[in-house]
Specification:
single chain; 6 strands; four-stranded antiparallel beta sheet; 2 domains
Length: 228
């Protein structure tokens, strides 16, 4: 998504960020997201959706939302060229050329946030199996890198250590479970990797400012999810 003029607030996994004119936002696959524009404010934007053929590697594999500058004139020119080519019935080859320009621009933009596939796959697996024990040794082994390399990548991508990233993922999942199910706190704790509900409650309150019971009673929409 590219903001051509104005501004929009982008919410990814409960975290709000502002995408202003001249910026673009590329989200990792399958992330919960939302967009909010202040009442009366103008927001002009463009969407580019990439549909990868079966078996082809995705253009961008990200572990975190990527928000960075994008030359507005470039994207506007390419989209206007494609629209004009299509509405005037110009040759399919010419229309394909404009599509190729847009795709090349997305590839270039995505390269800013590209990380090793093994690093992306690691956090996909952690998210799918949060109830398991994730030591630094196991994390590094599954990412096919040294512990120090993993620390550096995590600090660069998330601004936190591998251990704290696991905690962050657990608290986010717990927040969703508390807000969308009637599961007991003990069950939620077990589902996200805490064998002790008391320890889970302490960690959850430290991360959100609320105990699990308070979070559920107040409603996730008003309280918010753990901050980065």
């Amino acid at each position: 998504m590219v903001t051509l003029s104005g501004a929009v607030r982008v919410c990814v996994d409960g975290e709000w960020r502002c995408c202003e004119e001249g910026q673009a936002c590329l989200l990792p696959a399958h992330r919960e997201n939302a967009y909010e524009v202040e009442s009366g404010q103008h927001w002009e934007h463009a969407w580019i959706c990439l549909l990868e053929p079966p078996g082809q590697a995705p253009t961008a594999r990200l572990v975190r939302p990527l928000m960075a500058p994008w030359p507005v004139a470039t994207i506007r020119h390419a989209i206007c060229g494609l629209l004009e080519s299509a509405t005037q019935g110009q040759s399919p080859a010419l229309q394909t050329a404009w599509v190729d320009v847009l795709h090349a621009q997305v590839e270039h933009f995505a390269g800013v946030g590209r990380v090793p596939d093994a690093f992306v796959s690691l956090w996909d697996r952690v998210s799918e199996r949060l109830n398991e024990a994730w030591t630094l040794e196991r994390l590094a082994g599954e990412a096919h890198c040294s512990r120090e390399q993993l620390r550096r990548l995590c600090q660069r991508e998330f601004g936190r250590s591998p251990h704290n990233q696991v905690i962050q993922l657990r608290l986010r999942r717990a927040a969703r479970l508390l807000s969308s199910t009637d599961a007991k706190v003990e069950s939620v704790a077990e589902a996200v990797g805490y064998s002790n509900a008391f320890v889970f409650s302490l960690a959850f309150k430290k991360g959100t400012g609320f105990s699990p019971t308070e979070y559920r009673s107040r409603g996730a929409g008003r309280v918010g999810t753990p901050a980065s």
